[in-house]
Amino acid sequence: MAIIGMDIHRAFAEVVALEGKSRRRLGRIAMRCDRLAAFAAGLTKEDIVVVEATGNATAVAEVLAPHVGRVIIANPKQVRVIAHAKIKTDKIDAAVLAELYASGFLPEVWIPDKDTDLAQYGLADLRVKQLMTVPGLDMIVATALVAAIGDVSRFGSPRKLVSYLGLNPSVRQSGSGPAYHGRISKQGPGRARGLLVEAAWAAARAPGPLRAFFLRIRSRRGQHVAAVATARKLAVLVWHVLTKEQGHAPVRGQRGSAYDYNIKGDQERRRVQQAEKVYERFVAGWNRRGPRVRTSAAKEERQ
Length: 303
Description:
The protein is 43% helix and 16% strand. It is built from 11 helices and 9 strands. A 5-stranded mixed beta sheet has the order 3-2-1-4-5, with helices on both faces. It has a two-stranded antiparallel ribbon with strand order 6-7. Strands 8-9 form a two-stranded antiparallel sheet. Strand 8 (292-294) and strand 9 form a beta hairpin. Helix 6 (139-149) packs antiparallel against helix 8 (190-204), helix 8 packs across helix 10 and helix 9 (209-221) packs across helix 11. It is elongated and about 70 Å long.
């Protein structure tokens, strides 16, 4: 068995094979389907291929997977940290990937299998129908989220799903000093994260608690921060819907099925508007301070 490390670039990949303690450079392969297929034909079902998560890593994995025992996509940021600790280098190359896998320290990225192809989903999938009961989520967004999340039991809490989607704030802390929270981490599937932000804009235009939440954040931090915060709320709702396997019903008595997503009648609209007012009253006493005014790069003051 050989462990094949591939350092993938846009136009080519550097390849190294690790067999026991012996390292052998296999050269450079052009990033073309025919060249990758020809390279894969020389591998065996016992071989393991390790690549770094890049824009074309999934496409490379699809070409190589039928010819080898397993294709592993590694998390580049975690690999960089571990590589520096274990072999004193920040550079992620083909040899580093192979050596980290051989030593059992390679952080893997979850890869959806072929069953999570978007084309196979739609309204035929119960999870998609359930997600469409969440305000702002249409069939396209719901389908993309189902494909990106996969088995929701992988996430033990809503916070873990929020982190996976890259909607959690980045944190910097040194020693015992205070922790500083910055912008969202933007880790994980960017396409799903972007769709959730678009869904947040849609939810902010419809009556309901999410619009009230959006407006409250917008009054203090601006509309773009409010949209991201609302997207984070949507991610939490998505976790609950998929975990409990039932539609979202923000108003008591509202049915939780996909066709209830759109507000169809005056009675339903009144219920949703009432829920929005309940939320507004609930948070009326929160955050009385005025919006922050940026005075310089290092200083902020409140009105």
